[in-house]
Amino acid sequence: MGRPVAIVGTGHSKFGVRNDVNIAELAWEAMREAASEAGIELKDVDQVVVGNAGGWSSEYLSSIVLLEYAGISGKPVYRVEAACATGSAAIKAAHDAIAAGEADLVLVVGVEKMNESPTPIVVEMIGRLVTTSGSSRTSASPSQATTPSTPPRI
């Protein structure tokens, strides 16, 4: 069962095509708001879980860059990717860390900047996410897994 877990603060950035900020600045808007609402300082966070499903951002190490920008480098950080369920998976990872007693305060950040890659590449990546995480997934080991004969439609 574990320890009780609660969400103590939330935040979000302005939504839309954001050519005015990089990925760290975009995430910072939400991180700052969540910390303020929770009445904490980010330095008090024990761990950080970053939900980031894409490789379409110009920043390949998004989780590290977010911590550097927020001034909390050195904290344990985990990047979670679960296609369209990335946000939920990130929250679950934080929940599990707290419930297990690994951390008392975990910051969860979800961030994407899909507009930094050409549309055909983004469409291909989303299609691959759907194919590998959708209904074609089996409980077989990776060496036994089968590829669907017809790719899913998006």
Describe this structure in words.
This protein is α/β, with parallel strands linked by helices and about 150 residues long. Helices cover about 35% and strands about 10% of the residues. It contains four helices and three strands, in the order H-E-H-E-H-E-H. The chain has helices at about 25-40, 60-70, 85-100, 120-135, and strands at about 45-50, 75-80, 105-110. A three-stranded parallel beta sheet has the order 2-1-3, sandwiched between helices. Helix 1 packs across helix 2. The protein starts with about 20 loop residues before the first helix and ends in a 21-residue tail after the last helix.
Q: Which descriptors would you attach to this protein?
A:
154 residues, three-stranded parallel β-sheet, disordered C terminus
In short, what is this structure?
The protein is an alpha/beta fold. It is 35% helix and 9% strand. It is globular and about 45 Å long.
Mean pLDDT: 83
Oligomer: single chain
Helical amount among residues, as a percent range?
A: 25-40%
Q: Compute the separation of the termini in Å.
A: 39 Å
Task: Show the helix and strand layout.
Blueprint: H1 23-38, E1 47-51, H2 62-70, E2 77-80, H3 86-99, E3 106-110, H4 119-133
Parallel strand pairs: 1-2, 1-3
Helix pairs in contact: 1-2
